[in-house]
Amino acid sequence: MKLTLKHTVAAVALTFISGVAMAAEHVVEMKNSGADGAMVFEPGFVKAEPGDTVKFVLVDPAHNSVSVEVPEGAEGWQGAMNEGITMTLNEEGVYVYKCTPHAALNMAGVIQVGEAVNYDSAKAAVDKLTAAAATNKDRLTGYFEQVQK
After folding, report:
1. Count of Cβ atoms closer than 10 Å to residue 35 Cβ
2. Euclidean distance between CA atoms 35 and 105, whole angstroms
3. pLDDT tens digits for 30-57?
4. How far is residue 15 CA from its own chain's centroid?
5. Comparing C-alpha atoms, which of 95, 92, 94 is closest to residue 114?
6. How far is residue 146's CA from residue 27's CA, in Å, rounded to a whole number?
7. Mapping DSSP to helix (H, G, I), strand (E, B) and coil, where does residue 9 land?
C-alpha cells in the first residue's frame, strides 16, 4: 500500500490525539480541614506521568498553590489567592509546593512525575519547609516518603 500525504497526516493526528488522551488529570483540593488535619492539600502526594495535569481546586477560601521546588527545565507556578490553577507537568522529577498564607501550618504537598531526578533538592526543600513550620511537622515529610527513587 502506498502512503500518501493524506495518510501521513492522519497517522500523525491519531498519534497526537492518542498521546493527549492518555494524559491524566489529577485533582488536588485546597481545604481548611481534611483527612490529614487542618489547612491541607488533599491528596498531599500525587504520582503522575509526564504530560499529566494537576488541577488545584479551591474548596475553602484563603488558599493558593505556589511551587517551591521543581525539576531542572520545569516551570514553576504561583497561583493567585482564592483561585484554582491547573498545571501540565512535562518534566520528570519531584515538585514541592505550598500554600503561601498557611506555610507555617505546613500546608504543602509533593508531586512525583516519572523518575525522581531531583530527589536531593526536593528533600532539601521539604526539610526547609518542615523546619519553618509551627505545626504538622510530620505531614510533609510523610508525603515525601512516598516518593520512589
Report:
1. 9
2. 15
3. 999 999 999 999 999 999 999 999 999 9
4. 26
5. 92
6. 18
7. helix
The answer to whether 143 and 44 are in contact (CB under 8 A) is yes
Binding-site residues sit at: 63, 99, 102, 107
Architecture of domain 25-145: Sandwich (2.60)
Give the full edge-to-edge strand order of the sheet including 52-58.
37-42, 25-34, 52-58, 85-89
Domain ranges in the chain?
A: 25-145
Binding residues for Cu cation: 63, 99, 102, 107
Half-sphere exposure of 41 (CA within 13 A, CB side): 31
Q: What is the value of pTM for the model shown?
A: 0.86
Cell numbers that stand for 55 in this block: 488541577
Q: Which candidate, 99, 66, 63, 56, places its Cα nearest to that of 82?
A: 63
Residue 29 CA to residue 15 CA, distance in Å, equals 32
Residues 6+ apart with CB under 8 A from 80: 64
Q: In the predicted model, what is the mean pLDDT of the chain?
A: 91
**Quick one: pLDDT band at residue 19, thresholds 50, 70, 90?**
very low
CA distance 67 to 53: 15
